[in-house]
Design brief:
The complex is a heterodimer of chains A (470) and B (667). Chain A is mostly helical. Chain A contains 17 helices and five strands. Chain B has four domains: 239 residues, Rossmann fold (3-Layer(aba) Sandwich); 70 residues, no CATH class; 245 residues, Rossmann fold; 70 residues, no CATH class. Chain B has 22 helices and 24 strands. In chain B, helix 4 packs parallel to helix 7 and helix 7 packs parallel to helix 8. The chains are: A mainly alpha (470), B alpha/beta (667).
């Protein structure tokens, strides 16, 4: 059995998933929580974005199950250095991408390196030309002639596989639904096509189809070529981009998870108790929010750096160091970003505490803690929900910016920010290396766009004013 | 019929589409003559406002007019394109709304908002628009119009804002003024000012007024003709006098009977059972059948036809004129009044010199620059099983008194003794234990219940906090018992507050309060958010609970008729102080303080012609942050003397139960 490794961020991600499951269970039994989520489920935009987000989350979760692989016993002595290597399930799935390392830059789907080298010919003379890649397109005898046909054929095969997979998924969902609703399958298909279902299945299936198509084509091409090229040290960019998904998701979600308890508690306390409690909390958050965030983050990351250098024996593997730095970044981003939510909750609580039902509870002699948990907290939850979803995309972008100025995640860690950072030099080359930057941008853009669309739908669903108008 | 200004024929307005649209207006016919005041009367949800919006063609996006015609003069308003309709709005038709606070844009000056209307509808004048604005402001009785021109809406009081709204409506010299509950949000003394102003403007300009209201008193005051609306239809029209003398429709009669008042003290008020039926259905029978006492078989099978039995007289009812029965009097004379009025008078609650000041912070260091004296030395006593009513206009501090007695707001000074225990010095656990004795019922039943809790949990909350009611099963039994006591079915326990109507919600609030077995209940305007017929239900409930349980009430209200019906004693508040107190008979029959006199005279009485002369108060109540020197009332007092400005008058005791704070009585 491979040895399971649970990193700090892994543990928190699973905690977050557990919390979401508990909340989902809770929401299912409360009418006032179920109704808005149902209207999210009926929104075409929301469900389309949700499918995209789920694919990202799936990749992120796969990348969060870490283990130390078993070493083949025969080769143990030769690869003793590898015993410390920590891999994730995603690494395992992407083994070909991970291991097919070239020498240096190569452009997407190319069979040659991006720079000329001196190559010794069979006759001993030296010629300066683009050398063939070790892995990318290595199966082609004569790339100039076979390349186009091979690419087309691979895409075709990928598309066919995608169609097959799509049909299997769609038909199984349809049959399952038809059985539950008591329709025949044909009726159910008709209902989906004519858009009569509550949940917009036609949108979900469409988005799913596009994603499957892209995934299968990418998978087929990725094994034979470097789909998005390679970077300076010859690593596959497609692999890097996929690995970066986890980093982005961790920053976007864990930061919120870390800041949430403080923001909720402080915000509600300030609004509810007022007086000196309010003064102290307001003082804390106005002070905190007037320190430049970047400065605070830089200081904290540097402190961590010093600490880790002094206690280097405690951090055995590179990945643990990087992970701790990521966690620390989340914490420090959380510390700098909770003030907005706190301020909003304080305002809302100020309003709520004057409402008659809170006053009635006070007149009954209900304890403060009970009033807060029973009357105030459930009535501000929608604000928390909205701000969590809205903050997510902002934080993913913040990571990119911070890594660009070198105070983000560990440089050895795959992240969109690091990719963009390295693109600074690549863009200055002649001819320029554009694919790293483009790949990071496209993947980040898709995630942020999906998150923004989804958060819009969530916000509308939870906004009581819009709900009343419908 | 040439003098008809507005003719509506078979108007139908539906809201929403789909399988069951809400038939907000379901075929109404009416006619308004030039220069008359036509009143549309009815409870909330009957389609009154929808009628006004249909005439103006300002329906919400989901609403549409499906049938009928609206003629203003010779123009069919429904045929006009939107561009021409814009000229009609504010041109030949003006409209004023219920809430003057939200009808004006807070970031524009008053003058610029009126000029906007003048420029659109009155631009042909050679004069400068500003002159016309000042003329309009003068016409609506705003003092210093030149100065007011550049002021912002927040610098004006509610009554002034409503005057500005009227000025805007008048800018286009309308022939028809539509007023949708124009005085509902205002205090009685201000309401009297606005109603008089409208009457006076009508005489000067000869315009017709379509007034929408739910208040029979207002109807009696201003109406020429009345139409009663019920569930999207007009059920009765009559000239004002005839309507008040002999209402024909059972619904109109019920409305009259459910108004509380002195003469009904010993009886239970008539209630209209049930609520207005939902309008998203097609009616086969009479819409009122389920709530009618005189219901016959034919009422349920056949919709009654319009019965025009005289000039301007009509009714939609199967009951023929000959069958009109005199209302069944519910002669449940109770001996409560006599019994308690002579009974032992042990004070349950005594408040002595209660003061609540709210500090005003100014500057960057938030120094205390002054105080809002919300309550400034109030003393009162409530006896076991009696009701003390605190009356006053909004902003006089009556709600603050209630909350300060409950210690929801910490009093700045003074004593509150409940059953010989001082409450103001209690803290923490000791105060928490005492809380079950004093409870409060709020004005808005919807806002006083957490919308996310079941009724069972809402009622249970107090029991849990006070540790009464035993285990879960015991509490459940108690909740069901309480629901029954307030007249709700036990199944209500497992539903959410939003599933109930306003009156039912207020019953739940009463049940919640009763759960902790209080001895004194502070009722903070418990009926002012409710319709008249529903108000009667709640008043009946409160009264019978007092008889059964010996409760004492501190009844905070601005509605004199409720006071006359329910209270034993009255305290009249003005600007944080009690100016007059005594028994109901003493104060209401023979008011001594000039403010009480003005307040009582301003209350519209539901009998045309049969009312006293209104004493008009000038201006508005001053701010409690800067009360006038001397007697607080002297700037508005019609009988003010020089001495009034010097010192606040001491309370003069006129009898054992009565005291008045006025210099007029000191001599």
């Amino acid at each position: 059995m491979p040895e399971l490794v649970i990193l700090w961020t892994d543990a928190l991600i699973f905690l977050l998933i557990a919390l979401m499951l508990v909340f989902g269970h809770l929401a299912a039994s409360r009418e006032h929580l179920r109704t808005p989520w149902r209207s999210v489920g009926q929104s075409r935009m929301g469900m389309g974005a949700l499918v995209v987000l789920s694919v990202y989350v799936l990749i992120g979760v796969l990348d969060s199950v870490h283990y130390k692989p078993l070493l083949p016993e025969t080769a143990q002595t030769a690869r003793i250095t590898h015993s410390n290597e920590v891999l994730s399930l995603l690494d395992c799935l992407l083994t070909p991408l991970r291991e097919q390392q070239e020498k240096t830059y190569s452009s997407p789907l190319s069979s040659y390196l991006y720079s000329k080298e001196n190559i010794e010919q069979a006759d001993g003379s030296m010629r300066r030309e683009y050398p063939r890649l070790k892995y990318g397109g290595a199966h082609l005898q004569n790339p100039e002639q076979e390349w186009a046909a091979d690419i087309a054929w691979t895409i075709l095969v990928g598309a066919a596989e995608a169609l097959l997979a799509w049909l299997i998924i769609v038909s199984s969902i349809t049959i399952w639904h038809a059985q539950r609703a008591g329709h025949s399958c044909f009726q159910q298909c008709q209902r989906i096509i004519s858009r009569q279902t509550d949940i917009p299945w036609h949108v979900i299936f469409m988005v799913l189809g596009i994603i499957l198509l892209l995934a299968f084509v990418a998978g087929n091409l990725g094994v034979k070529y470097h789909l998005l090229g390679t970077d300076k040290v010859g690593e596959d960019v497609f692999y890097q981009v996929l690995k970066s998904i986890r980093t982005g998701l961790v920053i976007g979600t864990l930061t919120t998870l870390i800041m949430l308890p403080a923001a909720i508690m402080m915000g509600i306390m300030a609004g509810y108790f007022r007086g000196w409690v309010d003064d102290v909390i307001q003082y804390i958050y106005t002070t905190l929010s007037s320190i430049p965030g970047v400065l605070l983050i830089a200081a904290a990351i540097l402190m961590l750096h010093v600490y880790m250098n002094e206690h280097s024996d405690e951090f055995t593997s590179l990945i643990e160091r990087a992970d701790l730095r990521l966690l620390f970044l989340c914490i420090i981003l959380g510390v700098t970003s909770w003030t907005g939510l706190c301020r909003m909750l304080r305002g809302e609580t100020l309003k709520l505490r004057e409402l008659d039902y809170v006053q009635a509870a006070q007149a009954f002699g209900v304890r403060h803690f009970t009033i807060i948990t029973r009357h105030i907290l459930p009535n501000v939850l929608h604000i928390v929900m909205i701000s969590v979803v809205l903050d997510f995309s902002g934080l993913v972008l913040a990571e990119a910016v911070l890594s660009y100025v070198n105070i983000g995640v560990d440089p050895t860690m795959n992240s969109w920010g690091n990719m963009i950072n390295s693109a600074r030099l690549e863009m200055a080359r002649e001819p320029i290396v554009w694919w790293s930057l483009a790949a990071a941008l496209v993947f980040m853009f898709t995630l942020v766009l999906a998150a923004n669309l989804f958060s819009d739908v969530v916000r509308d669903a939870f906004d009581p004013r819009l709900r009343g108008g419908k | 019929m040439s003098d008809a200004l507005l003719r509506i024929k078979n108007l139908k307005t539906w809201l929403g589409s789909g399988s069951s649209p809400v038939r907000a207006i379901d075929g109404i016919d009416l006619e308004i003559k030039k220069g008359e005041t036509f009143v549309l009367l009815g409870e909330s949800g009957c389609g009154k406002s929808m009628t006004a919006l249909s005439i103006m063609r300002l329906l919400p996006p989901v609403g549409r007019i499906v049938e009928g015609s609206i003629h203003l003069g010779d123009t069919n308003l429904l045929d006009l394109p939107e561009s021409l309709m814009r000229c009609e709005r504010g041109g030949r038709m003006g409209m004023i709304f219920q809430e003057p606070m939200t009808s004006l844009n807070p970031v524009l000056t008053v003058g610029s908002q009126i000029i906007e209307a003048v420029n659109i509808h009155d631009a042909s004048q050679e004069r400068k628009p500003k002159d016309r604005v000042i003329e309009l402001l003068k016409a609506v009785g705003i003092p210093d119009p030149e100065q007011r021109f550049d002021e912002y809406p927040h610098q004006l009081s509610g009554g002034m804002k409503q005057r500005v709204m009227i000025a805007i409506a008048l800018a286009g010299r309308p022939q028809l003024l539509i007023a949708d509950e124009p005085t509902t949000a205002l205090d009685v003394t201000i309401q009297a000012q606005v109603l008089t102003l409208m009457k006076q403007l009508q005489q000067e300009t000869g315009m017709a007024i379509l007034l929408i209201t739910h208040d029979l008193g207002v109807v009696a005051e201003v109406a020429d003709r009345v139409a009663v609306m019920y569930a999207g239809q007009i059920v009765e029209t009559a000239p004002c006098k005839a309507f008040f003398q002999s209402p024909r429709h059972p619904y109109s009669r019920k409305l009259f009977q459910s108004i509380p008042g002195r003469e009904k003290r010993a009886q239970r008020l008539a209630v209209i059972k049930g609520t207005v039926p939902p309008l998203d259905q097609e009616f086969t029978g009479c819409r009122f059948a389920d709530r009618c006492d005189d219901v016959m078989d034919v009422c349920r099978q056949q919709s009654p036809e319009w019965d025009q039995y005289g000039e301007g007289l009509g009714v939609r009812c199967h009951l023929q004129a000959s069958h009109v029965t005199t209302a069944k009097k519910i002669d449940e004379v109770d001996d409560r009044v006599a019994k308690i009025e002579n009974g032992s008078l042990t004070p349950l609650l005594s408040v002595d010199d209660l003061k609540v000041y709210f500090p005003i912070h100014k500057g960057i260091f938030r120094r205390v620059a002054g105080h809002v004296r919300a309550v400034d030395g109030v003393s009162l006593e409530i006896h076991v099983g009696r009701t003390l009513a605190v009356v006053g206009e909004s902003g006089c501090g009556k709600t603050t008194v209630g909350k300060a007695i409950l210690q929801l707001i910490k009093p700045t000074d003074g004593q509150v003794q409940f059953d010989h225990h001082e409450l103001t010095t209690l803290r923490g656990e000791a105060l928490r234990k005492k809380r079950s004795d004093l409870q409060i019922i709020f004005q808005d039943p919807m806002a006083s219940m957490n919308p996310r809790m079941l009724v069972h949990n809402i009622i249970e909350e107090g029991m849990l906090a006070q540790g009464v009611g035993g285990n879960a099963a015991g509490r459940r039994t108690r909740v069901l018992e309480l629901l029954q006591q307030v007249g709700l079915p036990g199944s209500a326990a497992d539903r959410y507050p939003h599933e109930f109507s306003g009156g039912q919600r207020q019953r739940i609030c009463v049940a919640r309060v009763l759960a902790v077995e209080p001895r004194l209940i502070i009722c903070d305007e418990p009926t002012s958010a409710l319709d008249v017929s529903v108000q009667a239900q709640i008043l009946n409930l409160l009264q019978s609970l007092q008889q059964q349980l010996g409760l004492s009430y501190l009844f905070i209200t601005h509605d004199i008729s409720v006071v006359a019906y329910l209270a034993h004693e009255v305290a009249v508040m003005y600007l944080g102080r009690i100016v007059e107190r005594g028994t109901v008979a003493e104060v209401l029959d023979d008011p001594q303080h000039p403010y009480t006199q003005a307040l009582l005279s301003a209350v519209p009485v539901a009998e045309p012609g049969g009312k006293r002369k209104t004493i008009h108060l000038e201006g508005d109540m001053p701010s409690p942050a800067t009360p006038p020197a001397g007697c607080h009332f002297h700037p508005r007092c019609p009988q003010a003397m020089d001495r009034c400005q010097k010192a606040y008058p001491k309370a003069v005791s006129l009898s054992k139960t009565r005291s008045v704070s006025c210099l007029l009585l000191e001599n």
